[in-house]
Amino acid sequence: MSEPYDVIIVGGGPGGYVGAIRAAQLGLKVACVEKRGNLGGTCLNVGCIPSKALLQSSHHFQSASKEFPSHGIKIKEVSLDLKTMMSRKDKVVDDLTKGIEFLFKKNNVDYIIGAGKIAAADTVEVTSLEGKTEVFKTKNIVVATGSDVAPLPGVKIDENQIVSSTGALALGKVPKSMIVVGGGVIGLELGSIWRRLGSEVTVIEFLDNILSGMDGDVVGQMSRIMKKQGLKFKLKTKVTSAKVSKTGVTLNVEPHDGGPTESLKADVVLVAIGRRPYSYGLGLEKIGVTTDKRGFITVDHNLQTSVSGVYAIGDVIGGPMLAHKAEEEGVAVAERLAGQSGHVNYDIIPGIVYTWPEAASLGKTEEDLNEKGIDYKAGKFPFTANSRARANADSDGFVKILADAKTDKVLGVHIVGPAAGDLIAEAVSVMEFGGSAEDIARTCHAHPCLSEAVKEAALALDGRAIHI
Known about the structure:
With 468 residues, this protein is of the alpha/beta class.
């Protein structure tokens, strides 16, 4: 048997592959095990990346269909070529997965294709796609297996008529009607794609509102915008059963707090109620790794599990189930294994909804601050008063900054608007350095730019915004 690895990472998603590359940069002998046969995990293959490719393409389609005339651009007829749109999406994914393989070779990371199982704290068994099992020794193991689609009782996913996010990214034709079960980020993004392409989309949400956990102003604004765009919503509603036929899917639904049953029918039903940790079938119980009742792996502040030398990162340990959170954890573990001081600031992880307009949230919401009795002040600036947004005809939304009433330290930033996911980066940097709203207000922002709305929101905290 060859010399043991310093670390074997089980899972080649954003956390796993980034952690592997960072560990190799630091001089460790590294292997990454991935059973999919393509690196990048759910995010790159059937999640973040293909959905953003389709969001961009569908946005272009809607712009050409409905918005170009107001810009003086006349097109006689706009038609959809879904096959080409899907092919472009697939090429984006393929190019990026190959890119990660190149980075592995460049950084001397061994890429092992197969299903990994942890036989001991220093042993990983890998069963190849052909069924052959090999044993690899290592000083440390990092579990980075991510998450899987959460099932909905009474509704069986067939990836044909009842689909998960995976199936929704690969439909062969535009359904006349679609029901989305779940009003979270995934449901709204995918529902938006198919609504733009011509589907009648209804979103069913168990809770009182969509986008649970986001700031109330964001939820309210996004609800109004999504309705204006044609999405229909049934809130405080639960799905009890589903029946598939040649003509579509019939769902039985009822109010979540009790009431009469109602039947709804659609060509396609998308189940997007969340994700569950992929912690099963890995041999964790056998070696004594502790998980909670939902299957999330328990880790300490060093991201080490209950077994010495076995670490876990990303969706499989809970917290925000976001690729960038997993990446930060992958880097942190790699640096700690190399004797450095890796760190993840969990209070400053942005969350983005990539609809159009986008929504972005960072830090505390007003609801959080009120619940905890924290004295704060808020500054808000609408994109209708931003010159670049008006020039672009993208003026829906706002920037809101929350700061401590005494120290002026920024506690939270929430944006609905064009490129919100990019604009939030400034706030991430300011909050990472413990900055104040005054720091943002005193910083020169280029004109005319969307980012001026961030500066104006900071000015608004003290009632001195210029353009409102």
